[in-house]
């Protein structure tokens, strides 16, 4: 199985990017992982929030295959602790799934078309984080999930 993280816009903060790169490298020991960064939408000053979400949604959906299971990282999604998340990952791996795609949307969230296509929503916290920090938090949780599955000491129970 391949796990993909799909995001809009690159990470501007070099310190955050360095940490993301570190966890991405660590994940490579457990699973095939792809980090797909879509370009920011240009000329957003002339677009409404809805129009911007629609354009971002078109970009997101252009990267999703019919067979992909797509999970949105969404503030209204189901929240799990790290052990439950590791079990969630294991369940997907056991299902014979080819590709599990997690998506971080743009600053205004997701378009209706993306919500219609999704297979689920996952919430990281009831708090609001910058989209750039969410990338780091999520990739760290992926890594943590795999160390839990392997019963490695990274996660102290």
UniProtKB/TrEMBL annotation:
InterPro entries, per database record: Alpha/beta_knot_MTases (IPR029028), RlmH-like (IPR003742), tRNA_m1G_MTases_N (IPR029026)
Keywords from the UniProt entry: Cytoplasm, Methyltransferase, rRNA processing, S-adenosyl-L-methionine, Transferase
Group of enzyme by EC: transferase
Compartments where found: Cytoplasm
CDD domains according to UniProt: RlmH-like (cd18081)
Protein task: Specifically methylates the pseudouridine at position 1915 (m3Psi1915) in 23S rRNA.
Protein name, per record: Ribosomal RNA large subunit methyltransferase H
Organism of derivation: Winogradskyella pelagia
Lineage of the organism: Bacteria, Pseudomonadati, Bacteroidota, Flavobacteriia, Flavobacteriales
């Amino acid at each position: 199985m391949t796990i993909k993280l799909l995001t809009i816009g690159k990470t501007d903060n070099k310190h955050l990017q360095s940490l993301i790169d570190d966890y991405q490298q660590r994940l490579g020991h457990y699973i095939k992982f792809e980090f797909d960064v879509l370009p920011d939408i240009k000329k957003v000053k002339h677009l409404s929030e809805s129009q911007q979400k629609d354009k971002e949604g078109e970009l997101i959906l252009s990267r999703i295959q019919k067979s992909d299971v797509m999970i949105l990282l969404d503030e209204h999604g189901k929240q799990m602790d790290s052990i439950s998340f590791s079990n969630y990952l294991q369940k997907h791996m056991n299902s014979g799934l080819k590709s599990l795609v997690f998506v971080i949307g743009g600053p205004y969230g997701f378009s209706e078309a993306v919500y219609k296509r999704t297979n689920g929503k996952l919430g990281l916290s009831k708090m609001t984080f910058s989209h750039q920090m969410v990338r780091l938090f999520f990739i760290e949780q992926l890594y943590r999930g795999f160390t839990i599955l392997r019963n490695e000491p990274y996660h102290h129970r």
